[in-house]
C-alpha cells in the first residue's frame, strides 16, 4: 500500500461510526494563492471547519462526503491528489 492509502485507512478506522464520515469535503482551486511549483496549481481543501492548501498538477473542483473517498482505487494522479 502507498502512504496515501495507509492514511485513508487510518482515517476511516478513526471516524467510523462517529458521524464524521457523513461530513462534507470541498475541494476547489485557490483563487488567490500562488503555487510554489512552475507547473502546479494550488487547491484548497475544506473539511470540518479546517482548511488546507495543496499543490497539484491536476486541479479539480468537487464536493463530496468523506465516506465516498474510502476504498477508492487511487490509480490515476487525479485520484491521488
What Rg, in angstroms, do the CA atoms define?
13 Å
Could you give the count of β-strands? Answer: 4
Overall mean pLDDT: 80
Structure classification: alpha+beta
Element-level helix/strand string: HEEEEH
Number of helices: 2
Strand order of the largest sheet: 3-2-1-4
Features:
about 80 residues, alpha+beta, four-stranded antiparallel beta sheet, 4 strands
Characterize the structure shown.
- This protein is an alpha+beta fold.
- It has one domain (3-80).
- It contains 2 helices and 4 strands; from the N terminus they run H-E-E-E-E-H.
- The chain has helices at 3-15, 77-80, and strands at 24-29, 41-47, 50-56, 62-65.
- A 4-stranded antiparallel beta sheet has the order 3-2-1-4, with no helix packed on it.
- Strand 2 and strand 3 (50-56) form a beta hairpin.
- The radius of gyration is 13 Å and the shape is globular.
Amino acid at each position: 500500500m502507498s502512504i496515501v492509502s495507509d492514511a485513508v485507512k487510518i482515517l476511516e478506522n478513526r471516524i467510523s461510526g462517529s458521524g464524521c464520515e457523513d461530513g462534507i469535503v470541498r475541494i476547489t482551486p485557490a483563487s488567490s494563492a500562488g503555487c510554489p511549483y512552475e507547473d502546479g496549481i494550488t487547491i484548497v481543501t475544506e473539511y470540518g471547519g479546517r482548511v488546507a492548501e495543496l499543490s497539484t498538477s491536476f486541479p479539480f473542483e468537487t464536493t463530496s462526503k468523506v465516506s465516498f473517498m474510502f476504498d477508492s482505487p487511487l490509480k490515476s494522479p487525479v485520484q491521488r491528489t
